[in-house]
Amino acid sequence: MNKTVIKTAVLLSFFLAGFNSFSQNYVFTSEEASVKDSTGARSAQTGFAEEEFRKGVQAYYRGSYNDAILEFEKALSFLPSENIILEWLGKAYYRAGLEGTALAQWTLASENGYGGLLLKNKMEIIRERRISDNSYEIPVKYTESGSYPGLSFDGKSLVFSQPVSVLPNPDGSMWIVSYGSNELLRMDINGFVYERSNGSFAGFDRPMDIIRLADGNLLVSEFAGDRLSVFSPNGRFLKSFGSKGLGVGNLVGPQYLASDSLGNIYVSDFGNARIDVFDRDGNGLFYFGGKKDGQSGFDGLKAPSGVAVVGDCVYVADAVTGAVYRFDAAGNYLGLLCLEKTFVHPEAMKNWGKFLVICDGNRIFSVDTETGSVFENVTTGNAPSYVTCAVPDVNGNLLATDYRTNEIYVMSKMSELVGGLFVQIEKVNASAFPKVTMEVKVENRHRQAVVGLKEQNFVVTENKGGVQDFRFEGAAYVNDFADITLVLDRSLESAPYEKEMETAVREIASSMDGKGVLRIITSGAVPVQEYEGSPKNALEFSMKALKNPLAKNCPVDLAIRLAANGLISGAKKRAVVLIGAGKVSENSFSRYGLTDLTAYLNNNSIILSSVLVSKNEVAPELAYICGHTDGNEYYVYRSEGLKTVVRDVIDSPCGVYVLSFTSLQATRFGEKYLPVEVAAYLMNRSGRDESGYFAPLQ
Predict the structure, then answer these.
(1) Is 445 in the same domain as 348?
(2) pLDDT tens for residues 362-403?
(3) Which of 184, 281, 286, 365 shows the smallest number of beta carbons within 10 Å?
(4) Which of 421, 417, 448 is nearest to 142 (CA)?
């Protein structure tokens, strides 16, 4: 053989071996992936698996979970025991709603020694979610997970003094009524105060309680000022009403507040020993609860404290008798909810689902409004403590004001403290590499979104090393728009209600104010997408324009699945709204079961609600999905209209955060798998996730 040819072959062999060594990404570590050919290069099986794996990761981040599953399955066919492929296959199954199959993949990887405690914790949380209910039907014990002290960290300046009431906001922040310093202040989730108000021009005179009115404004009672003051949602003073006296519209030492569905305001009037009632404009209507009322079996209120309205009932706690009394909205006495001496000195009383949260000295109780049963949620121990107000916040905690210790407590379920936060890297965009953008979702163990986090609550690393130019780009909970997909029922049961369905579509489209994307899907024998675009173009929607004919059997599962598919890559606040008679036909859930369909919606942060065009009860299958995705049921001709359908979606908490950084990793021409990790911290709780991505091919 020619020496030149031999020399060229040797050099070529050396170059190829060196190039292959250089381009290894070392993401695959199984024995199968370590097999090399005669040149010392990795086997063809490994190369094929790497290519399919890269395609699968990219499909996953596009939201094409079925495509991702196919690619990961192909990769596994080349390397059946590769753990990282099993992990990613499980992630794709999880986002596709097949949680049982996802757990099977993760279990196999974990049994092979892969993933450590992080993977085991993820599996534990998902298993717990599949068998537990997220509602508050059963009260549980809470314990302190952190606190906001009234003094600054250096102890030299006063943040607030004698907090007496707190009002959580949808963005995770809170309004605090500072009785001692005569202030109303707004504090974020990390304890940073960024808004303060001293009330009107004359200032506060011992502010006592705060509630949010139906129009979004804030109402504050002033105990020594004998008045109520109204503030804008951002804390700007608007007006005051009420004055000192004994008549209608007068007050002597107003304490706690509540409002009903009509906007009427109820005030516990300590000095007059009664409940005063005002309309939404501040006009005095009447008062009740006094001795002179002479109602049979009722001696009159001695020292009314907490007041709450649930449905058509007004509940009043008495600080002297220790009882909770029931009245109707007109002030007629209905009986006792809790017997006398049930509580020692009850203070504020706030709504919590079907329960009332009552503060009593160093303890917090929940009371069932149906049975009157009492459950102790929290005790602050034997230290000097006087809790005056406790209220659930958007993150599933209880916020409590301690007047004596000058602190705001954050109370969480014990399981939340032990298990920490559930953090998921949902999407990585490296198209502008080395700049990388990530979407990270933060929840608690019970699928409730954690909102209000800031840049200081996150740490991002790559392959356990630091990154440059880390930025907090934004949070989805502040978004004021949503993507909505309407699913119109084309079954024979809904056929007589075309006018009602047109009304529902037009009203919902109008409520979107031209923001977001509106889709319309018809649920016939085969679901069909009829429209996609701006809500403005659906303001004159007509049922006559639909292409999908009526059908006897309409597979609702296929329609919901199609509707959800179009939302996955859309706005972070999103919902599917079913419009119809609320019935389901035979085999409506034969393709996708209720559990898998609900998981698909939940794992992609999609709410399912229902608008009924007739006064029938919604089918139990649809009620199940609505109830387990935080959706609601509405009647098309209800008095308040359908404007709140969109508002409820926008107001729903969303724990998705956008983070960016500059990567310091070598990409190997886009073929190398680049690991990335993120950790979230909030007081005494934390959580983390690990993932990876590929830079663009070069």
Answers:
(1) no
(2) 999 999 999 999 999 999 877 789 999 999 999 989 999 999
(3) 281
(4) 417
